[in-house]
Amino acid sequence: MNPLLREAYSTDAFRKSAHRLIDQICDHLAASFAGEHQQALPWQAPENAQRFWRDLAQQSPTIEEVCQHILDRSVRISDPKYMGHQICVPAPTAILAGMVTEALNNGSGVFEMGMAGTAMESHVVQVVARRLGWDEAADGYLTSGGTLANLTALLAARACRRLHSDALDGPSHSTSASPTSDWEHGTRQRLAVMVSEQAHYCVDRAARVMGWGAAGIIRVPTNPAFQMDTEQLPRLYAQATEDGLTVVAIVGSACSTSTGAYDDLQAIADFAAEQRLWFHVDGAHGAAVAFSDRHRGMLAGIERADSVVIDFHKMLLTPVLCSALVFRCGADSYRTFATEAEYLFSQQEENESVAAAESFNLARRTFECTKTMMAAKIYSLLAVHGEQLLEASVDHLHALASQFAAVIESRREFELAVQPQSNIVCFRYHGRGETTDKSSRSVEAAVALSQRMTLVRQALTEQGKFYIVKTVLRGEVWLRCTIANPFTSADEFNALLDEVERLTETLRPSLTERV
Ligand SMILES: *Cc1c(COP(=O)(O)O)cnc(C)c1O
């Protein structure tokens, strides 16, 4: 063997490095959990970061050196000052399971290539299905992120649409068109999906990927709480039909990304049933509350969905990427990428024979061919700690978000966008002596306020102590926090607001000149 290969595969070297690396990771996490790092975001401009990593690659570093630099130069999600994007602090159990799956590198396209991974995955999917209120007919799989899961769900909706209408009409109304004719012949109709204007952008992207264009996304306005205004559904649907569109699906957000608002899933389910639409729930972020007795009520109606997406990497302690796409009627999951000939089976035959033969060959149903052994981390969390761990995470993060909202409301110059329904909190700072009363604010003042929030967020990022993001709501800029870290406390909430206040007041004189 080439000496380079022999060295690269040395288990002695691996053992020594691995022991040292575990200590490095543990030291990093312990300091992070305790909030000992100065910065949650050790900010570096892109060109500086690029130069650093290019130079390091020339210096033949050891793996310990490379890893230490990665630890030092990455966002510290495990630091309590991290309140940025929706991503969890991974639990050590899940990290350990991840190390094993990296070492094994089993795929899971076909069962024989991923026996453990595929079976663990099936268990995880069934746990989710029970939590959604579904029986053994439900089935699904894990896939690489909520974005891909939502696209796959809409592909399933497209494939199943006539089948669903036919089932409701009874066999006598059956059309001769195969449910998969889009897959075989390309889409001939102009198809569309209805979704809240507050939905994650990936739903819009999915519709465009499928060739439905901008007209294929019917954006439903939201009420003052940023939930889909379901009263407008009949009017928008009638308009779309009149315009020659065939609406295939309606997507409920549980919850939306910007503000964490939960759509009224019962009302959407009613409408979907009435119009025979595929009802998909984008629960990438918020379907996690299915694990919580206290918060499950937010999902009332989800049991009537045809498909649901849930991300384990948002609130559920699992490293990225780990998402489940679950179908109420598991047989639907086989239709997404099926060719026409496979529809020569009757539905019953298909349920029994195809599902039985193929349920463990996941690539038949997933977008991916090779897929990581994705289930191991969440499976390990469930097996070792139980579903109560997920419930504890959901409850704790929600309680922290409520606490943060209360802190914001207790400070006069701060304004809360909306009472949080999830662990997402949007707010802004008006400045000393400014009014928080919207009705008495001029358009110019609103623009200036948005500008200030943009600059404050930029200043916060470059300073790096806290990591938060921003969002645009009804045309105005708000600061946005996701309380993702269980170690975050009122200390960080107050310190963050102090910092926002200090930065705004420092920036304000120069800003006033500019406006
Ligand atoms: C995060 C999120 C997504 C995207 O999921 P990824 O796992 O990041 O691809 C989709 N929808 C909602 C509501 C989300 O919050």
UniProtKB/TrEMBL annotation:
The keyword Lyase applies. It comes from the Bacteria. Its EC number is 4.1.1.86. SUPFAM superfamilies: PLP-dependent transferases. Its cofactor is pyridoxal 5'-phosphate. Keywords: Decarboxylase, Lyase, Pyridoxal phosphate. GO terms for cellular component: cytoplasm. One of its GO terms (biological process) is amino acid metabolic process. Pfam families: Pyridoxal_deC. InterPro entries: Aromatic_deC (IPR010977), PyrdxlP-dep_de-COase (IPR002129), PyrdxlP-dep_Trfase (IPR015424), PyrdxlP-dep_Trfase_major (IPR015421), Pyridoxal-P_BS (IPR021115). The modification N6-(pyridoxal phosphate)lysine is found at K314. Gene3D superfamilies: 3.90.1150.170, Type I PLP-dependent aspartate aminotransferase-like (Major domain). GO terms for molecular function: diaminobutyrate decarboxylase activity; pyridoxal phosphate binding. Belongs to the group II decarboxylase family. PANTHER family: CYSTEINE SULFINIC ACID DECARBOXYLASE, GLUTAMATE DECARBOXYLASE-RELATED. This is L-2,4-diaminobutyrate decarboxylase. It comes from Aureliella helgolandensis.
